[in-house]
Design goal:
The chain is of the alpha/beta class and 198 residues long. The protein has helices spanning 46-54, 67-73, 83-88, 114-119, 122-156, 166-176, 180-183, 188-197, and strands at 9-15, 19-24, 39-42, 58-61, 78-81, 97-105, 108-113, 160-162. The radius of gyration is 19 Å and the shape is globular.
């Protein structure tokens, strides 16, 4: 969290926004080959575009608000997001096949202005740090409950959930990691540490 100080922020805690998965309108994706040529909506991000290409699909940059209509008209075959977003945006109605590949996880940080932080007493800083840690644990619990709720609801609605077998999960990961050379320069040691924890 110390890295945020370079940007005038004081990092306080990490929130969870869940793992992101691919979903599509046409078929279960059970192996890497099933991704071939699917038109997948991605946010405007070179890294996400390259990752989707590495997996064999065609990235389509599009505003999030346009995804439902694009699924409905066949402009795209699928998209990617977490369970609650897949649920609340009702993408499951047009794209009932979801593959739990967990290709991306975007953490959210709770931060304070560095300038304001420095004006606080050490006692107030300690209270805020403690509350931030407590709120992160609470948020993660609520997030897990929300993910479980969305999954149960959508399975009951007929969505077909595919869990990749271990071999295919490793293949997805290996292909997704090919983008590291362009987007993770200088973070190789951190990535190795994360890989060791998994």
């Amino acid at each position: 969290m110390e890295a945020f100080e370079d940007y005038g922020l004081k990092g306080l805690s990490w929130y969870d926004a869940g793992a992101r998965h691919f979903y599509n309108s046409g078929k279960p994706v059970e192996c890497l080959e099933d991704m071939r040529d699917l038109k997948i909506r991605v946010a405007q991000s070179e890294m996400m575009e390259d990752m989707v290409r590495a997996l064999g699909a065609q990235p389509v940059i599009m505003d999030y608000s346009e995804v439902y209509g694009a699924l409905e008209t066949g402009q795209i075959d699928g998209a990617e997001n977490n369970w609650p977003s897949y649920d609340t945006m009702r993408h499951f109605e047009m794209a009932p096949y979801i593959t739990l590949d967990g290709h991306n996880r975007i953490p959210e940080i709770q931060a304070a202005s560095g300038e304001t932080w420095e004006k606080l007493s050490q006692e107030d800083q300690a209270i805020i740090r403690s509350c931030a840690r407590e709120s992160a644990l609470y948020e993660r619990r609520l997030w897990k409950e929300r993910e479980d709720e969305s999954r149960k609801k959508l399975e009951a609605a007929g969505c077909q959930v595919t869990v990749l077998n271990e071999r295919e999960q490793r293949r997805f990961e290996a292909m997704a990691k090919t983008v590291y050379k362009d987007f993770a320069k200088g973070y190789e040691e951190l990535i190795d540490r994360i890989d060791q924890v998994q």
